[in-house]
Amino acid sequence: MAVYPLNRLRRIRVTLLLTLAMLIAFVPVNPTPASAATLTMRGADISSVQRSLDLGARYYNAAGTAADPLDILTGVGVNYVRLRIWNNPASGYNNKAKVLAYARAVKARGLGLMIDFHYSDTWADPGKQYKPAAWASHGISQLQTDVYNYTYDICTSLKAQGTTPDSVQIGNEINTGMLWNDGRVVNNDFTNLSLLLKAGYNATKACNSGTQVIIHTANANSLANARWFYDGIRAKGVPWDITALSYYCMWHGSLSTLSTVLNDVRTRYGKPVIVAETAYPFTAANADGEANVVNGSAPCSGYPATWQGQASNFTAVQNTARNAGAIGVFYWEPTWYAISGNGWDPANMNGTGNQWDNMATFNWTGGINPNIRWNP
Questions:
Q1: Which InterPro entries match (predicted)?
Q2: pLDDT tens across 77-89, in order?
Q3: Mind listing the pLDDT tens digit for each residue in 165-216?
Q4: Which position among 146, 182, 277, 333 bears the catalytic label?
Q5: Which of 247, 245, 263 is nearest to 313 (CA)?
Q6: Which of 32, 175, 261, 288 has a beta carbon 3.0–4.6 Å from 353's, enabling a disulfide?
């Protein structure tokens, strides 16, 4: 056995202690969830379908048989439905009464239910986050109460009829905040937004502790932007359960970038991640007088605007998400084909057309894309 001088033994002891400290420092506080082997949330946002059905729209499966769109979608792999809710839309659709009614149809089929709170009377997205008219004069203190009470009311009303939501989004594509201008992030100050998000989270958990709270942005195109936002709310102590991103290849770039951002937010925040919105056109043509929001024969390289191109793009998004460890992918408005009277503007649905008619997975006579699949 070797004999070492006392000072050398001390140096060895110090070295061992420093090494141990370094190893401890590299143990993550929030261990990264294991990569998902399957997509457990295979979703479709079909928020416009009630209006379409009320106007007489018919839907057909790949065999040409008329059926309920929910049944057609479940037949091609959908197991989760996302429904947006507006506070008091002029159209009378996507409000509390309509969401409660359609939630019963969703849950009757054993499907998961996500409620997408816009906290507005109309569309909320990265370019606009209008307060509901009833809250227009409210400051941040009252808005916290508004968000809590409204979220709790919708959630408990759903729960009371046996359709408790499995998940809720507190805001929609809130890249720079919600309920502008009070809840807008200005000069990197997340204080007001964090108060609103906490109010929504607390209301949801008071309604049902098992309902998952989702925070959703459209930052799939930028790792820097995603980190800026989610770092910002985390620093303010905002709790959430699932991180969600929108991804449309024509606006958010390559699948490689999507993979990078999904992987990063999953590991950085230690929470499951989903793609809450995606879609792709099946044609470059336009079904009505309203200009399509996406045009061209191949808006993204390698994917023509055809039935096969649409299906291939959706499969590629699902594969990318799955390989990045995501647990879900949702197609946005697959049932919103061109039906006169179901226009974009909730204040003028009869007078506006559908800018999404070439992005649905059903053609203009209601037939589903025979190639489309939601894969585990």
A1: GH, Glyco_hydro_53
A2: 999 999 999 999 9
A3: 999 999 999 999 999 999 999 999 999 999 999 999 999 999 999 999 999 9
A4: 277
A5: 247
A6: 288
Kindly name the residue from 146, 173, 182, 357 that is annotated as catalytic.
Answer: 173
d(CA 245, CA 218): 5
Contact 330, 44 (CB under 8 A): yes
Spatial distance between the Cα atoms of 6 and 140, rounded to a whole number of angstroms? 65
Residue type, 272: P
290 catalytic residue (yes or no): no
CA distance 43 to 321: 13
Q: How far apart are CA 203 and CA 236, in angstroms?
A: 18
Classify residue 188 by burial, with Cβ atoms within 10 Å: 0-12, 13-18, 19+. Answer: exposed
260/8 Cα distance (integer angstroms): 47
> Helix (H) and strand (E) counts for the chain?
10, 8
Supply the Cα-derived Rg of the chain in whole angstroms. Answer: 23
What angle is formed at CA 121 by the lines to CA 118 and CA 125, rounded to 5 degrees? 40
Per-residue pLDDT tens digits for 42-70: 999 999 999 999 999 999 999 999 999 99
Secondary structure of 82-100 as H, E, C letters: EEEECCCCCCCCCCHHHHH
Residues with Cβ within 8 Å of 225's Cβ and at least 6 positions away in sequence, in order, are 175, 217, 219
What is the third-level CATH fold of 35-332?
TIM Barrel (3.20.20)
> Is 333 an annotated catalytic residue?
no
The vertex-239 CA angle with 156 and 183, nearest 5°, equals: 85
